[in-house]
Amino acid sequence: xxxxxxxxxxxxxxxxxxxxxxxxxxxxxxxxxxxxxxxxxxxxxxxxxxxxxxxxxxxxxxxxxxxxxxxxxxxxxxxxxxxxxxxxxxxxxxxxxxxxxxxxxxxxxxxxxxxxxxxxxxxxxxxxxxxxxxxxxxxxxxxxxxxxxxxxxxxxxxxxxxxxxxxxxxxxxxxxxxxxxxxxxxxxxxxxxxxxxxxxxxxxxxxxxxxxxxxxxxxxxxxxxxxxxxxxxxxxxxxxxxxxxxxxxxxxxxxxxxxxxxxxxxxxxxxxxxxxxxxxxxxxxxxxxxxxxxxxxxxxxxxxxxxxxxxxxxxxxxxxxxxxxxxxxxxxxxxxxxxxxxxxxxxxxxxxxxxxxxxxxxxxxxxxxxxxxxxxxxxxxxxxxxxxxxxxxxxxxxxxxxxxxxxxxxxxxxxxxxxxxxxxxxxxxxxxxxxxxxxxxxxxxxxxxxxxxxxxxxxxxxxxxxxxxxxxxxxxxxxxxxxxxxxxxxxxxxxxxxxxxxxxxxxxxxxxxxxxxxxxxxxxxxxxxxxxxxxxxxxxxxxxxxxxxxxxxxxxxxxxxxxxxxxxxxxxxxxxxxxxxxxxxxxxxxxxxxxxxxxxxxxxxxxxxxxxxxxxxxxxxxxxxxxxxxxxxxxxxxxxxxxxxxxxxxxxxxxxxxxxxxxxxxxxxxxxxxxxxxxxxxxxxxxxxxxxxxxxxxxxxxxxxxxxxxxxxxxxxxxxxxxxxxxxxxxxxxxxxxxxxxxxxxxxxxxxxxxxxxxxxxxxxxxxxxxxxxxxxxxxxxxxxxxxxxxxxxxxxxxxxxxxxxxxxxxxxxxxxxxxxxxxxxxxxxxxxxxxxxxxxxxxxxxxxxxxxxxxxxxxxxxxxxxxxxxxxxxxxxxxxxxxxxxxxxxxxxxxxxxxxxxxxxxxxxxxxxxxxxxxxxxxxxxxxxxxxxxxxxxxxxxxxxxxxxxxxxxxxxxxxxxxxxxxxxxxxxxxxxxxxxxxxxxxxxxxxxxxxxxxxxxxxxxxxxxxxx
Length: 1014
Prior knowledge:
- The chain is an alpha/beta fold.
- Among the domains are: 1-167, Arc Repressor Mutant, subunit A (Orthogonal Bundle); 182-239, no CATH class; 246-397, Rossmann fold (3-Layer(aba) Sandwich); 403-465, no CATH class; 745-802, no CATH class; 862-1009, Serine Threonine Protein Phosphatase 5, Tetratricopeptide repeat (Alpha Horseshoe).
- The longest helix has 27 residues, at 140-166.
């Protein structure tokens, strides 16, 4: 554009060379009003309102038109364009430039280009203090636009500060943070920025004080509590070796190489481990690594895991909070965590630092390993004790300081007697930094000799405890058993001392309502000072108090388990509740661990035998949900025990869990021990119980070569399921049992009913399974919009209901959509992921599904001949599976070799003879039909036309892959038979189906398979 319009202050019109055009006040208002429309047409009425704030004159319309003509005369006709809807400004407003700079600044910061972010934000902030659209006075449209600009200025100021901090301009950043916080005293985001600027200057105490001042200010001025952002920042500062941690006062020496090594590992991405004995400096190194990565532009999340268990997955939620991402709780803990990390890593590299990793549960550990596999993500785990070598990743062991580093540490402490011998101190401490400090300020005669933390610190600590008063010793004991970071209210509830809590000076203190030991190693030493009997008493009291205070069930269980000798029943109940809560949170590995612990309690207690098997079934089901194949043996054992005990409800639980995945996941009849369980379970008379069991049993025979049994079981179950709950548990099994093309209407009806039942009961499992059914029905109907809608719904639900079976299915559904849209690389990658996920559960079924999807991809690529050797092997190994015969027939037919033709014909015949009335029937006939057309066998083509004509207008879905429109194959068969009119008719139907489905790959397949004149 030739013209630029400056609307900050009085409106100015400038040529590209900087020449200013003289404007009257009326013309300034007119141009400013046009600029407000931001490229959209402005009606004559809106311009009249802008020019005359009071009643406009009768000649207003003519006056506006006259002003437009004059502006065109002093500039040129490109300045204002006339359109049917009104006038459009042909000049670029500097408000548009300003907003573009703000957007560029934000995008650069997210992308990690800190210098570019600073420059763009600096340009935007230059407009500060100039009133936009000043020519329009107090008109409503102008006020609204000014508010938008004002908000954008604040965004630019914040981005400029963040970028300056990342660039290391600490002095400027601190001054700017103080200015911003002073200008907006109730803005929590700017209070956090001030705290970060102070922290970057090494003034962590001042940073915490600034946040406390802000909380008091908003409480006093506004009568509200500060938001979660303030609390999150306080937690971050405290967890990062804050002023209450002895680590922050001890000089950081001898660890520089370790920090460099970990930072270099973080730059490469993946998993890194830092381990060593307590007090050796792991937390300080993690803090230094964190600071370095922030300075390098990483988005860093860090947490320190407390010794006591908290809410399910709380370390993962802490990391999400520290990353500054709002968790999507609808996705469950694991899904919310991985989605938050993936989202953040799209904009800048992410580092996740977890200290005291040894206190996390197995689900958290698995999630962290998964996060480490994401692009642009690194995970650094600090722990006492070396990791399992099978975990992989970079392993760094932190050992004692060398004598030179101890000497540097001593020299840096002004409170140390200059006569201290560093070599002697190194000998006594073993180079352990914490022990060096303890020995520098303690009676060394009490310390004894010998390297290592434990024996020396215990002796020093015992001497320190002996000086405490009795109430202080009692309080210290309770705090040590409760654990570092435990709520003070919980300790108070057990201590019940007189007067205010008096913490032992220099050992433990209260901060933000939590118990904080001077160093975690001191808590460990204090714990060891309490004899076993007293520990049990305190654990029991803490567990009971935690239950009264509605603490997380894991906290209650952790304490009561340690006091199981005092109250085994309470311990068992608490552990079972913790496992149930972990299941609800989707942390199935944690749940399995809790339920396994419950069985240990039964074995060593006086519980009835029923409790043991109840916990065993719960563990087996949790293992099933996590994809652990051990669940089959556990559930079979529990079911057989239930049969022996005559416990029908336990049998129903065990059988239903067993039949959903483990024992039903193969492509053969179930083994005898599974049949025994099924037969016993199906004798249960109660329809409320037996209907879901029969439906689950139908899955057992769905791919076993006995589809009639599968169908009969499901039909009987569906009739018997009369309550909403029974139907929610029964109807999902229609997916495999009703797999014939003629079942489509019934599948759709069941899917819609299940969707309503799931919605009414807020049951995410039923909702997921309903969309699972509707997804397959949509592929058969050619409903592309409905298919993608159901896939999106399942993606949203899978983290709440996502056992390994559903995740496996969803990977294939995503692979199918990728294939339909022509992204074969993505489809193959998703199929490989699915194979890896499920082969540990059922190698045969996982392999069959994988080759089915790969074959579908190769078929539309015209490359099935590449698979002939693999398919020959599959036919030899499993000669009774018709799909392998059909696939091999097409592979041989595609070579065009006369030598392969007889074999292809023979395998088509075998496929038709073996094909059973199940979910694979249509796919088998479609592939066989392509083979018959490929070899030009007219007799076979007539047979397959008869097989398939009834299903014209449908598409194929084989559970994990799609073979396209039936009409494509019918067109090929009719072309082989010389019936050109029928071939054209089916070709047109196939094209319409592919377009409706949104599947360009089937359109291309149609073009490649049939000539245009067919």
